[in-house]
Design goal:
Elements: E1 5-14, E2 17-27, E3 32-36, H1 43-51, E4 58-63, E5 66-67, H2 73-79, E6 81-84, H3 96-102, H4 110-121, H5 125-129, H6 140-152, E7 158-162, H7 170-185, E8 189-193, H8 197-200, E9 206-211, E10 214-219, H9 221-225, H10 228-235
Parallel strand pairs: 3-8, 3-9, 6-7, 7-8
Antiparallel strand pairs: 1-2, 1-4, 4-5, 9-10
The structure holds adenosine-5'-triphosphate and magnesium ion.
Keywords: Amino-acid transport, ATP-binding, Nucleotide-binding, Transport
Family: Belongs to the ABC transporter superfamily.
GO biological process, one term: L-amino acid transport
Length: about 240
């Protein structure tokens, strides 16, 4: 199943505290949709809401013609929507392979999951070599690669990446962005939260800025580049080519 992922007027939060006050996003299949915004603006909370980790308090989530509002995580995964949490969320005591297998936990066909993992890991020689070591003994960058690969195990239509380049060296940030571009080439839709705006903006097909749990901007990368006010308020200055 695929189609456009539409999030309309989503409200959600923690306990009784509403954090996301009616946010809307449209993500095209096979496009890279980037989400920027200050710390604490609700970026992670929004994608947790879309992924089914937090229940929607109001609003609607649709994929193509299908209404996915309120489905729990494992159902969302089956519908093709997967997230990589902020920090990766790799289990340090489990091996690389065990971490990757967790990415397929909601799928019934374990043979297909194993095949998927072999295909994915072939793209990551460092992980291939260390498939049986504890994930916690890998470098931060390698752990992030495990997290990204794990999110891809269910063969998602849309993958949501929460700051995939956080804490990585400049070379690894570039590699991460190249891998995100490769996903687009394969037709996977990407929703990417990033702080590395300079590196993320060039790969973005469309851009959202959140502030205070609300939409502040949506448009193309060129729209945002030409809006100096937005650049200075939400992005700490001008971004050069
Ligand atoms: N598990 C939680 N329980 C209670 N409040 C939370 C929880 N997680 C986040 N919050 C609060 O929700 C607000 C938005 O947090 P969120 O993590 O969505 O922000 P963010 O835009 O992703 O920020 P950052 O750029 O720092 O990752 C913050 O005020 C935060 O304190
Ligand atoms: Mg966050």
């Amino acid at each position: 199943m695929s189609g456009v992922l539409n999030v309309t007027d989503l409200k959600t939060g923690y306990g009784k505290q509403e954090i996301v006050h009616g946010i809307s996003i449209t993500a095209q299949p096979g496009h890279i949709t980037c989400v920027f915004g200050p710390n604490g603006s609700g970026k992670s909370t929004v994608i947790k809401g879309i992924a089914g980790l937090l229940p929607p308090w109001a609003g609607k989530i649709t994929l193509g013609d299908a209404d996915l509002t309120g489905l729990p995580v494992h159902e969302m995964v089956r519908k093709g929507i997967v997230m990589m949490p902020q920090g990766g969320g790799v289990f340090p005591r489990f091996s690389v392979m065990e971490n990757l297998r967790m990415g397929g936990y909601s799928l019934k066909d374990t043979r297909e999951v194993d095949d998927r993992i072999e295909t994915l890991i072939a793209d990551y020689p460092n992980l291939q070599r260390r498939r049986n070591v504890a994930a916690g003994s890998l470098s931060g960058g390698e752990q992030m690669m495990v997290a990204i690969a794990r999110a891809l195990v269910p063969n998602p239509a849309f993958v949501m990446l929460d700051e995939p380049s956080a804490g990585l060296s400049p070379a690894l940030v570039n590699e991460t962005m190249d891998r995100v571009l490769a996903l687009r080439e394969r037709g996977v839709g990407v929703i990417m939260i990033e702080q590395n705006i300079r590196e993320a903006l060039p790969v973005a097909d469309s851009v959202y800025i959140f502030a205070g749990g609300k939409n502040k901007f949506s448009g193309t990368r060129d729209d945002i580049r030409s809006d100096e006010h937005l650049m200075s308020i939400y992005m700490g200055g001008t971004v050069s080519e």
